[in-house]
Write a structure and sequence with these properties.
heterodimer, A: alpha+beta, Flavocytochrome C3, Chain A, domain 1, Methane Monooxygenase Hydroxylase, Chain G, domain 1, five-stranded parallel β-sheet, five-stranded antiparallel β-sheet, about 15% strand, B: 2 domains, five-stranded mixed β-sheet, two-stranded antiparallel sheet, 8 helices
């Protein structure tokens, strides 16, 4: 049995966080430097946590797999960050941001966590401005805002189309300062391979130095995971090539519960797939939906002619265009939440109205260019337009962009309580790596908000509550049997992978071995097809079967060149894929058990007459937390009921 | 499309490197440069000819700054305002010879093949490329109004991705554009004024200490910068530096 106590403080919703802070345990300044903390990941969550904890005086070691902390994939977030500042005087408030986020998540997130997120959102903007983040400003010199999906106010702060970059560089600056002060030690090109648990508490990690292949041990009083999501399970996604779910997964293997794995976000506006060799999908920011209008031809014959290359988008007369989002959702129009927009695109394409390869819709700026002028549009979205043109060789100022949904974000992740602590005491998870704030669908511009909220304003408080009595423990040793065993297990795991292809290779030069990418692509295709935007019992059963078969083949036929004692990216891919095979089974099981549709999880058996998600609050208003039972064994699930005391549950309606 | 690739192979930092030639066929013009290398690696793995070519890459959308190849004598290849991952094969001619090298600069030692160690850039930032703030206790964001054109200029300077193309393009392996961009970003903002003199002093000293050369004033860095960062940032760096020499508080 796992302990799923969410530790939500008592009292009215708006006072919970204040009460918590007033009564939590603290660590005195002289004791802080005696406590060691490991932070894994240098994205918004990891970097901001490490910088803040270091500034408080704790001894922090931070790890990233890239050559610099500034490469973490938070850097690629384009559109913006939400905050309830109400600078636009358009009726925004903490309460409103809280409600939008709960509704956007289709009533599958924890009230108290989301309220706290909304509550600290304003402080994030203050912090970032103090760091010198160059947010967009209006002519009076004050901060500018724009709108994002699922909101009827303008609360999104942005820095051109590079908001994630600027926020991450702000956190990277704060982190660099702590590194210079000596409170934080940086370890680049290091990958967490295992979590070391001693007497039931997280006490350290085993890392692989990617440049040399050496295994190293680090011990600490607490471990923080800010390692992002597992979207690359699908191979083609908007994630970076090296983004992976392995750090979270090894913690899951060691006993940390994994929550809601089937909640995967599919982003509606990405550049469509165009070839088998393709390695990733590029996102076109949601902010484009502020001014871009999404459409497909109204007549099937026009769509067919476009696909055959006989007609161009601009040949279709205004009255023959179907602005299907504006038609179906007049209240929110093109700014419906991501899951809604994605499904609507799929629906049109499946019905035969898609353009391009048949799996694409138009995102058209002609109206905006006419209304605002080309220059204004360029000011707002210039770098995105340029990016689009470089990839597709088409000019979006003249012809509409083509877009299609793609895997983007994972709402599921390690289960955490109100303190962001997992079911393993001493192991905390922040940002996309945890499951906590977005329910079944994340609203645009909320990932940056959550990552920074967790790192700057939540963990520095809640971790002290845990660390307060750790001052009696003394320095944690990395030479205990638990560390020996964990390191040995990692070594064996790597050797097992390297051996699969080795002997066979020696015997025949042209054997039937395949690369890791070959299997990763195959896994991604299966998951996208059968456990992607729409799922049902049949497709999930099928997925389960073919994933098992593929995994069996992987263990017989994957070929990893080179050795473990060198810089070897092929080996890195292989051990990450090994974890994805297990994770895929869990995503499928979770999707299978949740016999309802909510947010990004769409079961075709459970929809309304007009194709909207149909929740089943009676049976499924809970968080599904899964416990690992060994390789190939079905996991067991426990429920954390979701209790809504403050908000009125309603059907999610964007019409 | 068909290409002949000449790729720098080097087993590790101590080993001697050399060019190796690989023919490659059947490449789509819509393929990105890195996807072309993926295809080559897939073939090398399948045929067990050689260890796949190592090259750094991550976001593949031009923002993380991880990728960086010296292609036919130009950092990030023959196009302006892009990173290597944004270069597409349609920019080449069928049958081209393509020479691929790592960044070559003393402060960026080779790790393997085309992968170099750019931690020197992190060290420069750690020397002072930030505004000293601790979490919490800062004023409300709108109490610091900033003229739009200043904020925009700061944003342009701040868009540096730290890829190192400027250093690779420079005969002297100078990091002036990289340092100038960060110094400018912060010096253009009121929040950055307080530490401005100290910052420029520390960053420039660190840059020199790490073995980056001096500016050639030929601006190859500007020409090759994937984010089109302007050389005016170097002028601002110089002005700030001179100002710091005279105006800096002596401790």
């Amino acid at each position: 049995m796992m302990n799923l106590d969410s530790k939500i403080p008592a009292g009215p919703l708006a006072e919970k966080w204040t009460n918590y802070k007033a009564s939590q345990k603290l660590v005195n300044p002289a004791n802080k430097r005696k406590l060691d903390i490991i932070v894994v990941g240098t994205g918004l969550a990891g970097a901001s946590a490490a910088a803040s904890l270091g500034a408080l005086g704790f001894n922090v070691d931070i790890f990233c797999i890239q050559d610099s902390p500034r490469r973490a994939h938070s850097i690629a977030a384009q559109g913006g960050i939400n905050a309830a500042k109400n600078y636009q005087n358009d009726g925004d408030s903490v309460e409103r941001l809280f409600r939008d986020t709960i509704k956007g998540g289709d009533y599958r997130a924890r009230e108290a966590n989301v309220y706290r997120l909304a509550e600290v959102s304003g402080a994030i903007i203050d912090q970032c401005v103090a760091q010198g983040v160059p947010f967009a400003r209006d002519y009076g010199g004050l901060l500018d805002n724009r709108s994002f999906g699922g909101a009827q106010v303008s609360r999104t702060f942005y820095a051109k189309g590079q908001t994630g970059q600027q926020l991450l560089l702000g956190a990277y600056g704060a982190l660099s300062r702590e590194i210079a002060r000596g409170t934080v030690k940086l370890h680049t090109r290091c990958e967490m391979m295992d979590l070391v648990v001693v007497d039931g508490r997280a006490r350290g990690i085993i890392v692989r130095n990617l440049a040399t292949g050496d295994l190293e041990r680090y011990a600490a009083h607490a471990v923080v995971l800010g390692t992002g999501g597992y979207g690359n399970l699908y191979y083609l996604s908007t994630n970076a090539m090296n983004s992976n779910g392995s750090a979270a997964w090894v913690c899951h293997r060691k006993g940390a519960a994994f929550a809601n794995p089937c909640y995967v976000q599919i982003h509606p506006t990405c550049i469509p797939v165009h070839g088998d060799y393709q390695s990733k999908l590029t996102l076109m920011s949601e902010s484009l939906r502020n001014d871009g209008r999404i459409w497909v031809p109204k007549r099937k014959e026009d769509a067919e002619a476009i696909r055959a290359g006989k007609l161009k988008a601009n040949d279709i007369a205004e009255e023959n265009r179907d602005y299907y989002l504006e038609r179906r959702y007049p209240a929110f129009g093109n700014l419906v939440p991501r899951d809604v927009a994605s499904r609507a695109a799929k629906e049109r394409c499946d019905a035969g109205y898609g353009v391009g390869t048949g799996y694409a819709v138009y995102l058209d700026f002609a109206d905006a260019i006419q209304r605002l002028g080309k220059e204004a549009v360029e000011q707002k979205y210039g770098n995105l337009f340029q990016m689009y043109q470089k990839i597709t060789d088409e000019n979006p100022y003249e012809t509409p962009m083509m877009i299609y949904p793609a895997i983007h974000y994972t709402m599921g992740g390690l289960w955490v309580d109100y303190e962001l602590q997992t079911t393993i005491p001493g192991l905390f998870a922040a940002g996309e790596a945890n499951f906590s704030d977005h329910g079944a669908n994340r609203l645009g511009a909320s990932a940056l908000m959550q990552g920074l909220s967790d790192g700057y304003f939540v963990l520095p408080y809640t971790m002290q509550n845990y660390l307060a009595d750790q001052i009696y423990v003394g320095k944690i040793s990395a030479t205990t049997p638990e560390f020996d065993a964990a390191e040995m297990a990692v070594r064996q795991r790597i050797n097992k992978l390297l051996q699969i292809g080795s002997e066979k290779t020696l015997n025949s030069k042209h054997s039937t071995l395949n690369s890791t990418d070959h299997y990763h692509k195959a896994l991604g295709k299966i998951m996208w097809e059968y456990c992607g935007m729409a799922r049902n019992t049949e497709s999930l059963n099928k997925a389960k079967k073919v994933v098992s078969e593929l995994e069996d083949e992987f263990w017989k036929k994957v070929f990893i060149p080179g050795t473990s004692n060198e810089f070897n990216p092929e080996l890195e891919k292989a051990y990450r894929l090994e974890d994805y095979f297990e994770l895929a089974q869990l995503v499928i099981d979770d999707a299978m058990h949740r016999e309802e549709s909510c947010g990004g999880h769409f079961r075709t058996e459970h929809q309304t007459e007009d194709g909207e998600t149909l929740r089943d609050d009676e049976r499924f208003m809970y968080v599904a937390a899964w416990e690992y039972q060994g390789h190939g064994q079905p996991e067991t699930m426990e429920k954390e009921p979701l209790v809504y005391e403050h908000i009125q549950i309603a059907k999610r309606n964007y019409k | 499309m068909k290409f002949t690739l000449h790729i720098w192979r080097q087993e590790n930092a101590r080993a001697k490197g050399h060019f190796e030639t690989y023919p490659l066929e059947g490449i789509s013009p819509d393929c990105s440069f890195l996807e072309m290398l993926d295809i080559l690696n897939e073939q090398l793995i399948n045929d067990h000819i050689a260890h796949p070519v190592c090259f750094d890459n991550d976001c593949r959308e031009g923002i993380c700054g991880m990728c960086g190849l010296y292609i036919n004598g130009r950092p990030h290849g023959n196009d302006d305002g892009i990173t290597t991952c944004q270069l597409h094969m349609r920019k080449f001619h069928d049958g081209d010879d393509i020479w691929i090298e790592p960044w070559r600069a003393k402060p960026f030692p080779v790790i393997r093949d085309l992968v170099v160690d750019r931690s020197a850039f992190d060290k420069i930032i750690q020397a002072g490329g930030y505004i000293s703030t601790t979490t919490g206790g800062v004023p409300d964001a709108n109490t610091i109004p900033i003229p739009k054109h200043k904020a925009d200029m700061a944003m342009d300077a701040a868009s540096c991705i730290g890829c190192g193309a400027c250093v690779a393009a420079c005969k002297n392996a100078s990091a002036m554009l990289f340092v100038g961009a960060k110094v400018s970003h912060l010096a253009l903002l009121p929040q950055g004024q307080i530490e401005a003199a100290d910052r420029v002093h520390k960053m420039v000293c660190k840059m020199d200490e790490l073995g980056f050369g001096s500016c050639t004033n030929t601006y190859a860095c500007e020409a090759e910068c994937p984010k089109l960062i302007k050389r005016q940032n170097i002028s601002r760096l110089n002005r700030q530096w001179i100002g710091a020499l005279f105006g800096r508080d002596r401790k």
